[in-house]
Predict the 3D structure of the following.
Amino acid sequence: MEVRCPWCEGFDLYREYHDKEWGVPLRDDQALFGLLILEGAQAGLSWATILKKREGYRRAFDDFDPVRMAAYGDDKVQALLADSGIVRNRAKVAAAIGNARAYLKLREEQGAFSDFLWQFVGGKTIQNAWVSLDQVPARTAESDAMSKALGKAGFKFVGSTICYAFMQSAGMVNDHLTGCFRYQALKG
C-alpha cells in the first residue's frame, strides 16, 4: 500500500489530485493563471470544496481564458453569481475578472506569466524535506515576495498564504512529506 500525505485522505478526487497533480511543476501560463484563480477562490474554504467545483469553474470562466474573462461585463457577472457550479461570492468573482485584466497587463509588460511566477523560486522547485504536516509552513519569504509583487500588479486574493498554497500546487515547492510515495518521484 502506498503511503500518501495525510491531508489527501478522505475521498477519491482528493487522492487523485494528490497523486497526479499536486506538486507537479506547472509552467503553462494559462494553467498557472487558472490555478491562481482557484487558489484565491479557496480563501476561507477547504481545497476539497474548490476541487469539487473545479470543472464548474472551468466552464463558467471559459477555461480561464484571460482575454475572455477580462471582457466580462455586468451580465456575465450576474450569471456567475447565479452559477451553483462555483463559489458565488461577489468579491471573489470580481477578483477573478480583475485578475484576468492584471494578468494581461503583466504579460504585456513582463512577458511570460510562468517566468514571472517561477522567478520567486529561482526558476526551479524548492525541495523541502518535511516529515510531518506540522512542519509545513503556511507561508515563506518566497510566498511573501510573490504576494507583494502580484498585489502591486493589481491582483486580488493573492495573500502570502494563498500564494504558498499556489506554489505547492504548481510544483514550485515540493511539500510532499518524505514518507509519501510522491516525494521521491518529484524530487527530480
